[in-house]
Inverse folding.
């Protein structure tokens, strides 16, 4: 049945048909379109809006199409979109009575419903991957509870921590990314079908029933909103963009940590490349590609927001242009997620180097200042000044952190405050030892192995519940 044979004279040129057709990216909603047609037809029969015998024929044709697959459809761009292609198929099987399938339905409510069905499925898949990723991180963290490393601020040595503690910072970010997808999923879980073109229909349709048949928690409560809104796409793509940002940051660290200067991590050979001219090179190309590709998500998000921002309510064909950007975002994210997960799990953290860096460059300075507050009763700001001066003098004299003792600190203190501190030397030495520093940070969220273990337990509960 040609949609244009009523109101319009003649066909679109090939050029215009190609330009306006959504068929190429509608492939992703083929399955969903069969589901919406099936649910709608079932409801129409139940409500006695169309005869049961015709309903049966429509359902049989849809079943046949499901078996034959998308290749059974005529996907010429003159057909316009997947909804017309499916309807044409059903018509080719059973004749013009197929037209009853479109009673009280528009492509406007159908495309919104199809997109939600397909996107809910995509979200579930990505969430499953995320859970696996978090599990992998928890295993790596469990094996590295005592593996020292230095933590950075401004990418400068800051304080000692452990590899487990650092890894859990990734896990927490990924958990929030999971939560954002979950929120988007729940908000989109209302069915647009039955909105029809924009004001529903005078047929006594049962929207609760179609929503139920399609696995939604209920119908959307305004039919204009039903056909206009794509915030569910913008929101999901934001969640994916944020997740892409998490992955990009993980890759950024792997790139930095695998440099000769840091030498903290050895990437798997299967996630590295070499140079065509410099034979010695081992390059973190895969991490770089993730970092580069995830930028696509930022672009897709802005494109989607820009398309929808200027549209009046109800259906406008611009909405069709949102769809390819949605699928580009989900595909980019899915591949980046799988690759980053594989890359991190095959990366070897170099514990000895981690410890060397944790002991170097006065990363224990904060703990030393804390000790002066605790054991010498100094206000923190005074302690901060004494330790700061001690580090400057030590650097001038070529001393290392382990060369600092209570005598040295007393000299500095005497000079700055006119008083000595008289802290037990063994205690000073302890406060300079990264292992002891880690053990003493038992505050919630801190790096003490006992605390990290507790957080691993909480995250394991999260993994089990999801
Ligand atoms: N292909 C369209 C889309 O993806 C759905 C069809 C609505 N078309 C129309 N002319 N009202 O949004």
């Amino acid at each position: 049945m040609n949609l244009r044979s009523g109101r319009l004279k003649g066909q679109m040129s090939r050029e215009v048909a190609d330009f306006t057709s959504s068929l190429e990216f509608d492939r992703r909603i083929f399955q969903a379109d069969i589901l919406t047609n099936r649910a709608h037809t079932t409801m129409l029969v139940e409500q006695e809006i169309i005869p049961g015998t015709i309903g049966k024929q429509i359902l049989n044709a849809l079943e046949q199409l499901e078996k034959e697959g998308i290749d059974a459809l005529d996907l010429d761009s003159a057909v316009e979109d997947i909804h017309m292609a499916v309807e044409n198929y059903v018509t080719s099987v059973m004749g013009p009575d197929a037209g009853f399938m479109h009673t009280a339905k528009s492509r406007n409510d159908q495309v919104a419903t199809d997109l939600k069905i397909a996107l809910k499925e995509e979200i579930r898949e990505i969430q499953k991957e995320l859970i696996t990723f978090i599990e992998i991180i928890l295993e790596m963290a469990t094996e590295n509870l005592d593996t020292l490393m230095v933590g950075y601020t401004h990418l400068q040595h800051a304080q000692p921590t452990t590899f487990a503690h650092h890894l859990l910072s990734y896990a927490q970010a990924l958990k929030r990314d999971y939560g954002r997808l979950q929120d988007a999923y729940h908000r989109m879980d209302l069915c647009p079908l039955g909105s029809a073109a924009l004001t529903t229909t005078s047929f006594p349709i049962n929207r609760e029933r179609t929503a139920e048949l399609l696995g939604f928690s209920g119908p959307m409560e305004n039919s204009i909103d039903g056909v206009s809104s794509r915030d569910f796409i913008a929101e999901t793509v934001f969640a994916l963009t944020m997740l892409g940002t998490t992955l990009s940051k993980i890759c950024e660290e792997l790139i930095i940590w695998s440099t000769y200067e840091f030498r903290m991590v050895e990437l798997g050979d299967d996630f590295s490349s070499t140079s065509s001219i410099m034979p010695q090179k081992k390059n973190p190309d895969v991490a770089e590609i993730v970092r580069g590709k995830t930028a696509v998500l930022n672009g897709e998000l802005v494109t989607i927001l820009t398309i929808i921002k200027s549209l009046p309510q109800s259906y406008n064909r611009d909405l069709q242009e949102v769809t390819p950007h949605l699928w580009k975002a989900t595909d980019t994210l899915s591949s980046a997620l799988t690759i980053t997960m594989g890359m991190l799990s095959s990366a070897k953290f170099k514990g000895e180097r981690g410890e060397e860096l944790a002991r170097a460059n006065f990363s224990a300075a904060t703990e030393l200042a804390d000790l002066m507050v605790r054991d010498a009763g100094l206000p923190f700001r005074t302690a901060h000044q004494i330790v700061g001066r001690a580090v400057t003098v030590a650097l001038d004299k070529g001393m290392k952190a382990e060369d600092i003792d209570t005598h040295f600190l007393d000299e500095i203190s005497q000079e700055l405050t006119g008083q000595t501190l008289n802290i037990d030397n063994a205690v000073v030495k302890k406060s300079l030892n990264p292992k002891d520093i880690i053990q003493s940070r038992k505050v919630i969220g801190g790096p003490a192995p006992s605390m990290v273990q507790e957080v691993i337990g909480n995250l394991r509960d999260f993994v089990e519940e999801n």
